[in-house]
Design goal:
5 helices, 4-stranded antiparallel beta sheet, alpha+beta
Length: 168
């Protein structure tokens, strides 16, 4: 079995990187990663990425937080049994404040957990095939190919106007 080679094409122009990403999707090579110094809608559109499901984590966390906050307020109120000015022990309107605060708290925690879960962070395998210029001014497209397709892949990136770096 032939060894796989990883090639990164470094672009200074976002539009060229997006065009190359779109063409790379239609090629026989595998697009492994895209590195961008800024959030890029052009690259997102070129890669045809789906919307992130992190929002569902946030929604579930918010609902659970509201129920827990409301239940906590009711539980503590019934335990103390303090009747103030003839009001009922379980007064709903003041408990909404506790429910709202727990909604925000649980939603934020669920959002962070969802983001970490779906992205697989922390990841250290990306550092092997990473170029530090992608943190500053370059857009990087990392693709892999078999050993016999290395020249074609580097030629493809050079044809698209990229600086090419080959990893062993």
């Amino acid at each position: 079995m032939a060894a796989k080679h990883h090639v990164i094409g470094l672009f200074t122009d976002e539009n060229r990187a997006a065009e190359a990403a779109a063409r790379l999707r239609e090629s026989p090579w595998q697009l492994q990663k895209v590195f961008s110094p800024i959030p890029s809608h052009k690259l997102t559109d070129a890669l045809k990425l789906k919307k992130s499901p992190v929002g569902y984590f946030t929604l579930c966390g918010g609902i659970i937080g509201f129920i827990c906050g409301f239940a906590l307020a009711i539980f503590t109120s019934t335990r103390w049994g303090m009747i103030v000015s003839g009001k009922p022990v379980v007064a709903l309107i003041p408990f909404f404040i506790v429910g709202f605060e727990c909604t925000i708290l649980f939603a934020v925690i669920a959002n962070v957990i969802g983001m970490l879960t779906l992205t697989g962070l922390p990841r250290y395998d990306n550092l092997r095939y990473y170029d530090p210029r992608c943190s500053g001014s370059h857009f990087g497209l990392l693709a892999s190919c078999e050993a016999d397709g290395l020249e074609k892949l580097t030629g493809f990136f050079q044809q698209q106007g990229a600086e090419v770096k080959v990893f062993d």
